[in-house]
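HOLO CASE FILE
Compound: magnesium ion
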Amino acid sequence: EIDVPADHPRYESLLTRHRIEAGVEQGITSKQGLIAEGRGEAFDYLLGEETTESADAAARAAAAHLLLADHPVLSVNGNVAALVPGEIADLAEAVGAEVEVNLFNRTDERMQAIADHLREHGVTDPKGLTADGRIPGLSHERAKVDADGIGAADVVVVPLEDGDRAEALAAMGKTEIVIDLNPLSRSAQSAAVPIVDNIIRAIPNIARHARELQDVTEAELREIVATFDAEEALRAAEEAIRSGDLE
Ligand code: ATP
Ligand code: MG
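Model generated. Tokens follow.
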């Protein structure tokens, strides 16, 4: 699809950038999504562009939460749709979650384009278009969710969520799993499970853990959830960034 030499040392990063660019061209990703991508790249560079041990443990805790959930929902914005549409479909299947399109800058065109794009990549019946629910404490447009989607969810995965909305969702009592490369962002800090990793690596990693944990007992899943320490995960991520051996 694109012309990046596979032996380029920063292959994955260039591929990611191209996908975001294509997302903007297809009307899936907003221009602000380009800026978010740039921010993410900088943090990923400092992390060595790999999943740390601590981020892997967070992905495992996320998988356990999702398997225990009554009504898990994966929230998808323009960057997520451009980068990992098929991986979202796969994770949804692995944990029995619904997928909801949830945009900071909501337009009908972009909602439709993302829903279509997700369907093309195997997501059945993406939610978000009804918008008959509200997140308390946010202004009208930014508060919109589906009442029977994120509105009714007990566990939500919110990759790259805006800090304000992440806090408001947590205040609703939802167990929030945030994927964000910046451990200092309010989104990561309000999460029950912050995964400080690139969504390109994190989404398939959660799915892999979920399949591995498919047959363990509920008690074991609860044990994984109980022993996960969000503050420690954020501290470890910050430490990895500060002391990284950059190549
Ligand atoms: P705060 O959460 O403190 O309010 P913010 O929400 O204003 O900050 P944004 O720039 O809007 O910050 O959000 C983009 C976030 O998404 C950044 O923290 C960036 O590191 C992260 N990000 C961007 N691309 C990716 C990616 N591919 N994987 C994971 N995280 C990413
Ligand atoms: Mg943020």
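CASE NOTES: The first helix runs from residue 11 to 25. Residues 53-242 form a domain with the Rossmann fold fold (CATH 3.40.50.12640).
CLOSED: yes
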